Every structure is written in structure tokens, then in C-alpha cells.
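tool=predict chain=A
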Amino acid sequence: MVVFLAAVAFAARAGLFAFAAGFGAWAITLLPIFVGGMSS
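tool=predict ok
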């Protein structure tokens, strides 16, 4: 049971990290386009 909970916690943490990394990459890609569109 403890091993199961540890595995769930690890998977959740890994998933959250992957989501944060993907969101960061998406934001870095779109931010210059958004700022460029606003300034022009």
C-alpha cells in the first residue's frame, strides 16, 4: 500500500513537471508572437 501511494505520488509529480515544461515551451513560443502583434 505504501509503495502504491509512493508510485502514485511520483507519477503525479512527474506528470505535473511534464505539464509545466510543456506549458513553458508553449508560452515561450507564443509570447514573442503575441507581443509582436500587440506592438505593431
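The radius of gyration is 17 Å. The mean pLDDT is 92.
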